[in-house]
Amino acid sequence: MQLEIVTPDRRVVVGKADDVVIPASQGEIDVLPGHAPYLGQLGTGVLRFTTEGKDVELMVSGGFVEVDHDRIVLMCESAALKGEIVAETERKSLHELEQKLAALGAAGEGDADYQGLRVEVDRAAARLMLVR
Amino acid sequence: MASLRDIRKRIKSVKNTQKITKAMKMVSAAKLRRATERVMAARPFADKIADTAAALARRAELLGEAPHPLLAHRPESEQGGTLEILAITSDRGLCGAFNSNVIRRSLRTRFDAKDVHKQVRVSTVGRKAAEAMKREAVPSRKTYEGVWDGLSYHKAQAIAFELSELFIAGEIDAVTIVYNEFVNAGTQRVVVDQILPIVAAKSDEQDTVDFKYEPDRAVLLDALLPRQLATRIYRALLESAAAEHAARMQAMENASKNAKEMVGSLTLYYNRARQAAITKELMEIIGGAEALKG
After folding, report:
1. Integer Cα distance of B119 and B139 in angstroms
2. So what CATH class is B21-252?
3. Same structural domain for residues A8 and A27?
4. ipTM associated with this complex
5. Under 8 Å CB-to-CB from A68, ≥6 apart: which residues?
6. pLDDT higher than 90, residue B262
7. Which chain A residues have any C-beta within 8 angstroms of a chain B C-beta?
8. pTM, whole model, 2 decimals?
9. Statement: residue A18 has pLDDT above 90
10. Residues A9 and A28 both lie in one domain
């Protein structure tokens, strides 16, 4: 199968892959060759696939996944390969984000800043989980 | 006539200016390279989102469903509604006509649109546009600030979501962006583009392959279209950033050239003045010697 993972800033992965496990918004989906055409939303979590016998893991979050004729395309808002993530920096940024979130407090729960920060926290946590 | 010391001082000061403009040119050249790479890198995502959205919109059309509100061509979008102009400039100057081109074009678009639309509003990205609108006493709906410090897709998406909401609520009926497009290192072109309502890309989706949609088609299109808009705005911002660096590079190149010419003519003037002083001294000595002889 052809796998392509793009974000607004770069093409993260392009190449052959078999057995792709995708964190869709409604739960993980496992895509094998001959999968039915599918279009869904992405959640936040770890995507795993094997290519030439190697396992690859990356954090993906937000966006869409399309499976069509053994072609998988992920359009994600954020993605990071396992090798790109540095645990220490991630821990620090997660800590900072959580503090910012706490500073906004329960009062700001409804507004866009709060929601955005919430998403950032989830993403940082997912990245951290991948390297731990 | 200026004294020799004054001229020397002047030459030194121009040379210093030249050093600064040269350095700024180098910095802009490096930034320009990175900015153009970003423009290229943003393309695959934007194309994919647009394709997917177009295919979904086409499918809805084939099934005879009402078009999505962001696509809907309500008559007010063309005429008699509220138009919003989003003017994109930089925060900083020293880049030639880069900003004034966009500002002039925005003001003209606003002027022309008044004949067609009931109301025309302006929003700005970048300090230069905000200052200009204030100067021209054009009220802005919103001045988006801090977009250029750490420009990210996220910031474009925030603008896109806000515009989408206003559009769906019927507060605005059309949005036009005005920005500088990067053509090449020597050319920037002002682009005026309508971004709302969204015109779905042509999709040749004919086959009836039934996709499994999760959660469902309507929700997906709801999520896709504002993101498609976000990629349009992000593209405009990236183009503008690249064009800005190109414009500044050119402006600094010109300034360096002017400084060089100035140093040349000042040096000539300096040498002439020095020669005149020497000649005068010689004349005085000769004059003195002649007088003694007599």
Report:
1. 12
2. alpha beta
3. yes
4. 0.88
5. A37, A38, B209, B211
6. yes
7. 4, 6-11, 24-26, 36-41, 63-64, 66, 68, 73, 75, 77, 112, 116
8. 0.88
9. no
10. yes
